[in-house]
């Protein structure tokens, strides 16, 4: 890591930085040096990204992923829509909208007993995603009715047209990603004509 030169697509950390880093004179070790080098790299890369791909330039370059999206299980559709200056996602369709007793699905695992009877249909589960880069929305939360828990969320619109929604707690790399595909409203209308 430290041997790369500026201009490479790697992190450049001058060789003089790592050997001089120590904490209370007991932290001079190869592991500590490697961790510090990694931290310096991440900080440098974040600063470079902020300079080149700030929210203002990104906001003009990417069309937001508004509309209907099908979850990987093919049983749930989520509608992404604006909520103030951010994006939110609402559950708008279930392949099986009723439980075993024939009643509409409800938020039965919610930690708040007062909310356990609210219907899942129409429930906003993706909240306050802010565009931070080209095709990237972050700083939001996602509620999972399957376990009644709220997670941090990041969303990205990929080159292949899929929408990746990542849920995580504190550390993004330890999260899980749902890959969603866009639902064309015209095709949907032909398959499921409205009866009202």
Description:
The chain is α+β, with helices and mostly antiparallel strands and 196 residues long. It has 2 domains: 1-52; 62-191, Lipocalin (Beta Barrel), CATH 2.40.128.520. The protein contains 4 helices and 8 strands; from the N terminus they run H-H-H-E-E-E-E-E-E-E-E-H. It has helices at residues 17-20, 30-52, 55-61, 185-191, and strands spanning 67-70, 76-83, 86-94, 124-133, 136-144, 149-157, 163-168, 176-183. It has an 8-stranded antiparallel β-barrel. It starts with 16 loop residues before the first helix and ends in a 5-residue tail after the last helix. The model is unreliable at 1-60 and 190-196 (pLDDT under 50).
Strand content bin: 25-35%
Task: Provide the number of structural domains.
Answer: 2
Distance between the termini: 63 Å
Q: What's the average pLDDT? A: 76
Largest β sheet strand count, sense and barrel closure: 8 strands, antiparallel, barrel
Describe the oligomeric state of these chains in a short phrase.
Answer: single chain
By CATH, the topology of the largest domain is Lipocalin
According to DSSP, the number of beta strands is 8
Strand order of the largest sheet: 1-2-3-4-5-6-7-8
Q: CATH architecture of the largest domain, please?
A: Beta Barrel
Helix and strand content put the structural class at alpha+beta
CATH class term of the largest domain: Mainly Beta
Helicity, as a percent range: 10-25%
pLDDT below 50 for ≥5 consecutive residues: which ranges? 1-60, 190-196
Number of helices: 4
Over the alpha carbons, how many angstroms does the gyration radius reach?
22 Å
């Amino acid at each position: 890591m430290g041997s790369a030169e500026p201009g490479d697509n790697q992190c450049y950390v001058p060789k003089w930085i790592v050997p001089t880093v120590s904490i209370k004179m007991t932290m001079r070790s190869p592991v500590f040096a490697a961790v510090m080098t990694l931290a310096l790299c991440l900080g440098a890369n974040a600063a470079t990204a902020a300079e080149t791909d700030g929210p203002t330039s990104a906001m003009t370059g990417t069309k937001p992923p508004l509309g209907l999206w099908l979850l990987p299980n093919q049983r749930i559709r989520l509608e992404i829509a604006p909520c103030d200056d951010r994006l939110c996602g609402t559950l708008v369709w279930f392949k099986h909208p009723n439980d075993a007793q024939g009643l509409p699905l409800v938020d039965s695992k919610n930690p708040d007993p007062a909310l356990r009877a609210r219907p899942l249909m129409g429930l906003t589960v993706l909240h306050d995603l802010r565009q931070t880069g080209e095709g990237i929305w972050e700083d939001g939360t996602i509620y999972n009715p399957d376990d009644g828990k709220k997670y941090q969320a990041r969303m990205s619109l990929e080159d292949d047209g899929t929408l990746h929604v990542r849920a995580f707690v504190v550390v993004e790399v330890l999260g899980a990603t749902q890959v969603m595909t866009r639902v064309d409203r015209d095709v949907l209308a032909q398959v499921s004509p409205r009866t009202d």
